[in-house]
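Our preliminary data section would be incomplete without showing what the modeling component actually yields. Below, a chain of 265 amino acids is followed by its predicted structure, encoded as tokens that our downstream tools consume directly.
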Amino acid sequence: MESYIELIIQANQKKFTDVERIIAQYFLDGNTELGIQELAKKLSVSNSSITRFCKKIGLANYKELIYLYKYSSKGTKKQSDSSISYVNLNYSLLLNDIIEKLDKEEVKKAALMIDSGRIIHYWGTGYNAFCGEDFQFKFSRLGKIVNVITDEHSIVMMAHGVQQGDLVVISSISGDNEAVEKAIKIVSEKNAKVIVITANEKSPYKEFAKAFCLTSSMGKKDMGGISPQIPVLTVIDILYTEILAMYHEDTIKSWIKSEVILKGK
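Predicted structure:
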């Protein structure tokens, strides 16, 4: 079975320039890992060419490429071409990318908004609907009333019912849906608070958000083996943990009560 690094290189090889093919072959041949300057000198290419190669195969930078290569079967003789290792690598990359992108101050703002609100409207279409269920389960344990809406038409319709001061949480990896954007504009005009969770740094939703939680997306890194809602679920976990860390007495009491109910005591 081919290693993970071979898979993502081969999946993108038709788009390579001649220089990028040289870089790709170096890794496909299982050569020793080098620093970017050393590799550039060895292959007689520029540092920027190596960086462009990394981005073309869906990686953020050369550091990420070396991380993958280090744990590939050709790179270290470790058996990393198994399904377990494949998922492990993808999760590691994904979590690292989320942590790098997620702004701590935005997390704090979002957590305070959730903590101070009681009724929360959660909007998410497609696989974000599953994220809504997780959000509802977690924060209802903290005494919040969460209304999850998962289709575009209902989101636009319900936007008209949102009141001033209400909290709306929107999760969308693409961060670009005309119907949802229309709904966000409606609630913004009513001075409702909006939290956006997305992987799109340039999302049109951003200008309406009181808190903008930037997450990640596997994109070209994954061959379909990682659930696409993981980046949003990770942010939800972080927000939930941030609120618990505030140690508000009422929050802890609500959590304890929900734990007793869940255990059937």
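The longest strand covers residues 193-198. The chain has two domains: 4-81, 103-262. Preliminary results of this kind motivate Aim 1 of the renewal.
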